[in-house]
Specification:
Helix content is 40%, strand content 25%. It has 242 residues and is α/β, with parallel strands linked by helices.
């Protein structure tokens, strides 16, 4: 059995992951929340799963790196500085970072990338995401991941093409951009829609999450795969084998 440790243990995702570990018959190494000792958990676990917060990532990565323990990072709201830390850690340990552990979202990302590449610059791309009222970051990590896929298909980067929200007299839509809109309310687990709008027609690719358990299933499956992977930076595509 594989021993899995959880950063962000008492959060919604942390509790769901604990239940999934029990369901599949693996071992819970324990968990750490704010104020806990990440180093002790990293030493005891075969693999770590992080759904804590961006401000905890540096300490959690350092603990994983120091212990040589692979880590799955599902925390969203990460900055360029956080991604640089992940790149550094991936030189020594296996790190899987993703904005969403759903296999459906992993497949959607591939479809979005392919559609953006095939449709070309005459089609406008807009991404709409909806989440529960307690979510603290916007756009969601999943929306940004889909935006990255679209940008890659267009042959550009999200930093160059992304437009986060619009308000006021912003003028006509600029070509070659990827727009984002965020909705927050109620108990929505997570809805994502990518709209490709052309002349007189639209293509809509989307995903709706009805149960937080699907993210826990993906996170545990990713952790079990990562436990035996060599050092490097991975995405959910690697777990899917695509």
């Amino acid at each position: 059995m594989t021993s899995i440790g959880i950063f962000g243990w008492q959060g919604r995702m942390g509790r769901a992951i604990e239940q999934e570990i029990e369901r599949v018959g693996e071992t819970l190494a324990g968990g750490v929340d704010q104020g806990g000792d990440p180093v002790d958990l990293a030493v005891r676990a075969d693999v770590l799963v992080d759904f804590s917060s961006p401000k905890a990532l540096a300490a959690n990565l350092a603990a994983a790196r120091g212990a040589g323990t692979p880590i799955v990072i599902g925390t969203t709201g990460l900055s360029d500085r956080h991604h640089a830390m992940i790149d550094e850690a991936a030189a020594d340990i296996a790190v899987l970072q993703t904005g969403n552990t759903s296999f459906g979202i992993a497949l959607l990302s591939r479809l979005v990338r392919d559609a953006a590449r095939r449709l070309g610059p005459d089609w406008d791309i807009e991404i709409v995401e909806s989440h529960h009222r307690l979510k603290v970051d916007a756009p969601s990590g999943t929306a940004l991941m889909l935006g990255d896929a679209a940008a890659e298909g267009m042959g550009t980067t999200l930093a160059d093409s992304g437009v986060i929200g619009r308000a006021g007299l912003v003028g006509a839509r600029a070509g070659g951009t990827i727009g984002f809109a965020s909705l927050r309310g109620g108990t929505i687990v997570g809805d994502h829609q990518v709209v490709f709008a052309g002349e007189g027609e639209r293509i809509e690719l989307g995903h709706r999450a009805d149960d937080r358990g699907l993210f826990a299933r993906g996170a545990v499956r990713a952790a079990l795969w990562l436990a035996s992977a060599p050092a490097g930076r991975y995405t959910m595509d690697a777990v899917l084998g695509v």
